[in-house]
């Protein structure tokens, strides 16, 4: 059985009225259940609804004793039934001891779930009444963070810097013509390293979309798309990694080479990244 979590704001419990209706002993079958109705109107939810993960709804109820029995109300609860399984109470109010009860409350749904949300009132005779509606909570989306400048630099044959935050390394050049970007070693390595299309740099805008794109792409150990022989070159290359549980999208935009006849070359790759 799935355990659900909720955030609850209960801000009104009020009211007490008296009823003087007497029981009719001549009635063979009587409805002695208490009355419960939803509050309707602007801002209140009282019918089937579809929301996004993390959203809240405002629910209001009005409860009164049965007009025949006049039994005082004892307890009120709100709960969900998911896949025919009752979940833990979201609200559980006992010892009402009144002929009327009212409550308005916010419920926040942090989990993806579909079920029926019940509100139930019980009187001191144990008679119960409930009302319900269906709540469908869909997965939410989270926008990627802002672009951050990226600079990978390899000086005079030393290991490249600036790649470790993505779980990558740059320690050699293929036949001195292409930068060899690859997964870092052991526990520092990206869990996944992929190449995406240029269009995906702008079309992927949420973490969920980036996650799906990375998981669907073919993992690679090595990328050799940047020249190490051209003094300045422009690129439109898009890579992505999964590292330490986070997904990164990388846009390589240009590279420069500075040559020192004695010490060697300084190769710098410029671009942007988002996560």
SSE layout and pairing:
Layout (H helix, E strand, L loop, with lengths): L6 E8 L20 E4 L10 E4 L3 E9 L8 E10 L2 E2 L4 E3 L6 E9 L4 E11 L4 E11 L9 E8 L12 E7 L3 E6 L8 E5 L3 H4 L3 H10 L5 E2 L8 E12 L2 E15 L3 E11 L1
Parallel strand pairs: 3-10
Antiparallel strand pairs: 1-8, 2-4, 4-8, 5-6, 5-7, 5-9, 9-10, 11-18, 12-13, 13-15, 14-16, 16-17, 17-18
Report on the structure:
The chain folds into 2 domains: 7-138, Sandwich (Immunoglobulin-like); 148-274, no CATH class. The protein contains 2 helices and 18 strands. The protein has helices at 200-203, 207-216, and strands spanning 7-14, 35-38, 49-52, 56-64, 73-82, 85-86, 91-93, 100-108, 113-123, 128-138, 148-155, 168-174, 178-183, 192-196, 222-223, 232-243, 246-260, 264-274. The strands form 4 sheets. Strands 3, 5, 6, 7, 9 and 10 form a 6-stranded mixed beta sheet that branches. Strands 11-18-17-16-14 form a 5-stranded antiparallel beta sheet. The protein has a 4-stranded antiparallel beta sheet with strand order 1-8-4-2, with no helix packed on it. Residues 12-22 have low confidence and may be disordered.
């Amino acid at each position: 059985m799935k355990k659900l979590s909720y955030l609850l704001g209960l801000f009104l419990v009020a009211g007490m009225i008296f009823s003087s209706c007497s029981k009719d002993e001549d009635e063979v079958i009587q409805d002695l259940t208490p009355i419960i109705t939803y509050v309707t109107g602007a801002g209140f939810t009282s019918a089937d609804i579809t929301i996004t993960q993390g959203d809240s709804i405002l629910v209001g109820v009005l409860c009164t004793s049965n007009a025949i029995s006049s039994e005082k109300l004892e307890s009120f609860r709100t709960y969900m039934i998911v896949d025919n399984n009752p979940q833990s109470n979201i609200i559980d109010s006992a010892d009402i001891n009144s002929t009327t009860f009212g409550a308005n409350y916010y419920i926040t749904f942090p989990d993806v779930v579909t079920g029926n949300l019940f509100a139930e009132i019980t009187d001191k005779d144990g008679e119960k009444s409930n009302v319900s509606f269906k709540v469908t909570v869909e997965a939410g989306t989270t926008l990627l963070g802002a672009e951050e400048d990226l600079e990978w630099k390899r000086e005079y044959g030393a290991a490249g810097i600036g790649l470790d935050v993505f779980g990558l390394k740059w320690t050699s050049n293929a036949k001195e013509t292409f930068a060899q970007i690859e997964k870092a070693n052991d526990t520092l390595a990206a869990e996944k390293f992929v190449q995406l299309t240029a269009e995906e740099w702008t079309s992927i805008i949420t973490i969920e979309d980036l996650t799906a794109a990375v998981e669907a792409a073919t993992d690679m150990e090595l990328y050799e798309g940047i020249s190490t022989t051209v003094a300045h070159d422009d690129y439109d290359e898009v890579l992505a990694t999964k590292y330490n549980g986070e997904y990164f999208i990388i846009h390589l935009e240009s590279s420069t080479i500075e040559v020192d006849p004695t010490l060697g070359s300084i190769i710098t790759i410029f671009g942007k990244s988002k996560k």
